[in-house]
Structure formats: C-alpha cells, structure tokens
Specification:
mainly beta; single chain; 0% helix; 182 residues
C-alpha cells in the first residue's frame, strides 16, 4: 500500500475554504487546467462564496445563507463546480451541459451525504479528455464517490471506512488522495 503524499494544492485549514488547480480565468482553459491555484471561501458575515487566484482579484461566486462547508473543482472548460452543505443539506452548484446553465441542485448527492468534497481527478494537459470531476462524501461509514462522465448517477465506494472527509485532490505522487477521519 502506498503511503499518502501531500496534496498539490495547500492543505485545507477550514471547512469554509478550499483550493483547486485551474486555468487562467473562469471559462478559460486555453492554457490548461493546472495554471493557478484557486481559492474558494465562504464568508458567513455576508452569506457568500468568493473565488480568487494569483493575479485574479477575489469576486463573488454566489450568495447562500447557512453554509457550513464547501468544496471546489472546475470542469474541463473551467466552469466552477462547488459542493457545499447548507442548513445541514448537501448541495452542488455546477454547469450542467445538458441544460447549458450553471445551476443549484441537491439531486447529485444523497440526502445523508456528509462532508461533500470535489476535485478534477487529473487536470494535466495530456489527460484532460479522460478526466472527471469526482464528487466524494461519507455515507454509512464509508467514503463514496460519483463521476462526472456518468452525470454523478452511480455511487461507488472507496476502500476502508471513514467518519468524515476533510480534503480530496491530486497529490504530489500524481494520484487522487483523500484526507479523512477514520
């Protein structure tokens, strides 16, 4: 069994802050998806999620009251994908290519999902066409996940058990890693 490796992005310091590699700007993947480390943060004082990156001033992504944790990813076209818990319910804000709009939904996660986290599993240029946003969470004592290419419809289980999920993303060993509470 491989030893866990550090994440490529900074380690989370709060459930209300998440980091993810992405392109040069929202909706701009022209230079690849591993150009800048983006930061999403929830500000409870104004009930809003903000996004920023080096050289990109912080801007309002959306407002939503009662958020207690967030996760950030980008799809292959640099559309934001944010999973979050609002008033103890798991939500996702994502670009749905079928409806061709950014929307809020609870349908991508089971109602009893705990600690939703998300990441693009491999944003390296040569692998973008094979990449997926991975939406992970804890349910019934196990880390579960769903994949973008299946429209997040099929639940799968990672090996082992967990009480909580802290962080998800690519590590320095170029593998998908999860930081969790056993």
């Amino acid at each position: 069994m491989d030893a866990p490796a550090p994440f490529l992005v900074p380690e989370r310091s709060s459930p209300l802050i998440d980091y993810e590699y992405g392109g040069v700007a929202i909706n701009d993947s022209s230079q690849g998806l591993m150009v800048k480390v983006w930061t999403a943060r929830y500000d409870a004082r104004v009930a809003a999620i903000y996004l920023s990156a080096p050289g990109v001033d912080e801007f309002l992504l959306f407002g939503r009251p009662g958020v207690t944790e967030i996760g950030l990813a980008f799809d292959q076209n640099m559309n934001p994908f944010v999973c979050f818990v609002q008033n103890k319910e798991p939500w996702v804000w994502w670009y749905d290519p079928v409806s061709q709009e950014q929307l809020f939904t609870k349908d991508l996660l089971p109602a009893d999902a705990v600690n939703p986290r998300c990441t693009l599993d491999d944003g390296r240029n040569f692998n973008v066409s094979n990449s997926d946003i991975i939406l992970a969470y804890v349910r019934d004592g196990a880390i579960r996940h769903r994949k973008q290419r299946e429209r997040f419809a099929t639940e799968r289980t990672f090996a082992g058990s967990a009480k909580g999920l802290w962080q998800l993303g690519m590590a320095t060993n170029l593998r998908l890693e999860a930081s969790y509470f056993p």
